[in-house]
Known about the structure:
CATH topology: Rossmann fold
Number of helices: 6
Distance between the termini: 19 Å
Shape: globular
Radius of gyration: 16 Å
Structural class: alpha/beta
Low-confidence stretches: none
Bound molecules: 5-O-phosphono-beta-D-ribofuranosylamine
Number of domains: 1
Mean pLDDT: 97
Number of strands: 9
Strand content: 15-25%
Largest sheet: 7 strands, mixed
Amino acid sequence: KKVGVLISGSGTNLQSLIDATRDPSQHIGAEIVIVISNKPNVEGLKRAEKAGIKTVVVKHADYPNREEFDAAMTVELIAAEVEIVCLAGFMRILSNTFVNLWRGNLINVHPSLLPSFKGAHAHKDVLAAGVRVSGCTVHFVETDIDSGAIIEQAAVPVLPHDTVESLQERVKIAEHRIFPLALKYLATERIHLNDDNSITWNY
Ligand code: GRF
């Protein structure tokens, strides 16, 4: 399956997807054909270029509203014949139109064990809550933020002297393992998102 990856930053998850999809022994069944960033000059774009993958910058500031920004991304994705869209540290909320268009083929990685700690400051909120276990989640994207059906999760310990940075670093190691795995489930049709937001597992 042809995959498009949307990023906004360092792209370490993108790197894990590039590496896994190019490793024949992992049988991911997917090939990344385009990387779109809403921010120019980010590290993730350099990773894609280095891997010889087409990159496009679609700057949200260039569009009058969210719908038109998303539509510009859809034009690029369709031109690249993308079938699956991965959000890998993409820090913009997507319009309902975009989410509904790609529904069932649109997945995101979130740095907490959902449904706990939704939102853009998960690690900070985890530390403030004092929980001893955190983790990460790969889920289908729904119009409600961080609420889609859960595909894969991994737990990670929270250590006594953790900072946002140290926790993020530990959680990212787990993200880099489960994001390619979740993509594999979708690309090889082991999972299917139903209309009622449940997942059918075919194996
Ligand atoms: C990850 O922690 C991801 O869960 C969150 O944003 C971060 C992106 O990191 N949504 P990277 O750009 O993949 O390094």
